[in-house]
Automatic annotation (TrEMBL):
It comes from Nephila pilipes (Giant wood spider). This is Zinc finger BED domain-containing protein 5. Residues 1-16 have a biased composition (Basic and acidic residues). Residues 1-31 are annotated as: Disordered. The gene is ZBED5.
């Protein structure tokens, strides 16, 4: 009880504090509350309701909860926005309303663009998995989506669908982003697993170029995992030296140590078809 009284005394000594700022619970006495009247200093509030922070309606600056007192709010208004110092409550209320509207508009714009971005990644993944040409994104998939949406939902929804890009370049970029991300995750796992086994084999592509494919096997959380590591063109003849050079180049770029490679298997075995 003493504690409560002492605290109340100390807070009541602050002349700047409005009557509403004194709360009943002793623990919250130290947190200053927002008073509707503070709008005349050009301030609204943001953050947690129990410890709100004053936010300037003009510049958006957020002050600390301790600054939730007329003298400090006034100081900010006079020093940072002298031209607004003599404006009345109604002026700041209008500004606040305008800010809210802009915020709402911005939020909806960002949400749509984020969704469009996510959608373009999903479609790029489908194109990659189905091994379809990148140009299918714009010429077939997007065109089909727009037709379906136009017939089933309406012209306004078509505008939304039209916001996401599926050009061949975009699809290529998205696939590249995803594959880099997958490789990055795999390298991290490999480095943390420390020991791994490597399986490599060559094949010839439709252009008659030799492609070296590598697969790694390692332990992750007590499970043996197998992952495709890379597919690289072997520029020269597929001799042992060339295969080592291509693999070594890849290891150097990814910071993988040969000393952690406990076994190298050449060719496909363990039920895989091929040579
Ligand atoms: Zn300001």
């Amino acid at each position: 009880m003493d504690k409560f009284l002492r605290r109340k005394d100390s807070s009541s000594r602050t002349d700047d504090e409005p009557s509403t700022s004194v709360t009943k619970k002793p623990k919250e006495v130290s947190e200053k509350k927002y008073d509707e009247d503070y709008i005349k200093y050009g301030f609204s509030w943001c953050g947690d309701e129990t410890a709100p922070r004053p936010q300037c309606i003009i510049c958006g600056d957020q002050l600390s909860n301790e600054s939730m007192v007329p003298s400090k709010l006034k100081r900010h208004l006079y020093s940072s926005h002298p031209s607004c110092a003599n404006k009345d409550k109604q002026y700041f209320k209008r500004c606040l309303e305008q800010n809210k509207k802009q915020k709402k508009f911005m939020k909806s714009a960002v949400t749509v663009s984020e969704k469009a971005l996510e959608a373009s990644y999903h479609v790029a993944k489908l194109i990659a998995l189905q091994k379809k040409p990148h140009t299918d994104g714009e010429t077939l998939i997007k065109a089909a989506c727009m037709e379906i949406v136009r017939l089933m939902l309406g012209p306004n929804e078509v505008k939304e669908v039209n916001k996401f890009s599926l050009s061949a370049d975009t699809v290529k970029r998205r696939i590249h982003d995803m594959s880099s991300d997958i490789l990055g995750t795999l390298i991290k796992k490999l480095l943390s697993a420390e020991k791994f086994a490597l399986q490599i084999n060559e094949t010839t592509d439709i252009k008659n170029k030799a492609q070296l494919i590598a697969i790694v096997r390692f332990v992750e959380e007590d499970f043996i995992k197998e992952h495709y590591l890379f597919c690289k063109e072997v520029p020269e003849r597929t001799t042992g030296e060339e295969i080592f050079r291509v693999t070594d180049d890849f290891f150097k770029i990814c910071n993988i140590q040969w000393s952690n490679c406990i076994a190298v298997l050449h060719g496909w075995r363990c039920g895989n078809d091929g040579s």
